[in-house]
Design a protein that fits this description.
about 150 residues; about 30% helix
Length: about 150
């Protein structure tokens, strides 16, 4: 009787571990499938680096393709100016708004580090001798886009 109680306890523990592992596996697979599906087609910045003057951003398009590259680039620039990315906010409290934007765009987050960027956006003032910022001096800037 003592042996059968230990055996039953071990069976219950093994069944519990099996259910727990299965639940973890389903949760992990569900998160992998949802990557980029929460906001399909809406760009999101996933990393930034600033050297005081230039802000370098990595942006994901959350889409399989980018149709009109110039229209997409303008949307990304506007999201930078409004500081409205979902996953990242530009820090403007110490150094202020950046003077230039250097943006690499990937179609999906999983492409970062595995593929070349789908496009590159450079947003800089036409007159490099002046101090402008992307938020307050929109008319002084020009945008260059290439694939």
């Amino acid at each position: 009787m003592i042996i059968s109680n230990k055996l039953k306890t071990m069976q219950v523990i093994a069944a519990g571990l099996t259910v727990f592992c299965a639940a973890c596996l389903f949760a992990a697979l569900g998160n992998k499938e949802r990557e980029g599906k929460d906001n399909p087609g809406i760009p999101d910045a996933v990393s930034s680096m600033s050297d005081g003057e230039t802000c370098r951003l990595t942006v994901v398009a959350n889409s399989g393709t980018i149709g009109d590259e110039e229209k997409f680039a303008r949307m990304v620039i506007e999201m930078c100016r409004e500081n409205s990315f979902q996953s990242l906010r530009l820090s403007t409290d110490i150094e202020g708004w950046p003077e230039k934007l250097d943006i690499r765009v990937y179609l999906r987050k999983r492409d970062i580090g595995k593929r070349e960027p789908a496009m590159h956006i450079l947003y800089e003032p036409a007159d490099d001798g002046e101090n402008y910022d992307i938020r307050n001096d929109e008319g002084k800037y020009h945008m260059t886009v290439w694939s």
